[in-house]
Amino acid sequence: MTPEQVRLYAQGWVLAEDSPNWTKYCFYGADIHREALAWLLAQVRVLAQTLHDGDEPCSEAAQRCDGMLCVDDDEGDLSLVWYLKDGVVLERTQHHTVP
Fold first, then answer.
1. What confidence score (pLDDT) does residue 11 get?
2. Which pLDDT belongs to residue 62?
3. Any residues with CB less than 8 A from the CB of 48 and at least 6 apart, and which?
4. Which of 4, 10, 71, 90 has the most CB atoms within 10 Å of its CB?
5. Predicted TM-score (pTM) of this structure
6. Tens digits of per-residue pLDDT, 1-18?
């Protein structure tokens, strides 16, 4: 990807500045080309590792699913779910057609 594409797609990240309780939320919302999925997955992997490195090994936080990201294409061909758990990203892929 070009530096311009990276700057454009990086604008899709939204980080909550504060939280009403104990959970902090992070969202990604943008229309991206399929070719940029590898870039987004790399970003999510860094996030998963960062979340995991901040947890105490035996804490409740380290035992739960740290995050989930759903990725769908606008043509309805591809549906991905990336789960952030234990510092890694687990991917579930489901190919489907829209009736």
1. 96
2. 46
3. 66, 67, 84, 85, 87, 88, 89
4. 71
5. 0.75
6. 899 999 999 999 998 887
Token output for 94: 């489901």
Report the pLDDT value the prediction gives residue 45, as an integer from 0 to 100: 92
* Number of domains the chain contains: 1
The pLDDT tens digits for 15-47 are: 888 777 777 778 899 988 888 999 999 999 988
What is the domain range of residue 22?
3-95
Distance CA 67, CA 45 (A): 11
Size of the chain in residues: 99
SS3 letters across the chain: CCHHHHHHHHCCEEECCCCCCCCCCEEECCCCCHHHHHHHHHHHHHHHHHHHHCCCCCCHHHHCCCEEEEEECCCCCEEEEEEEECCEEEEEEEECCCC
Amino acid identity, position 33 = H
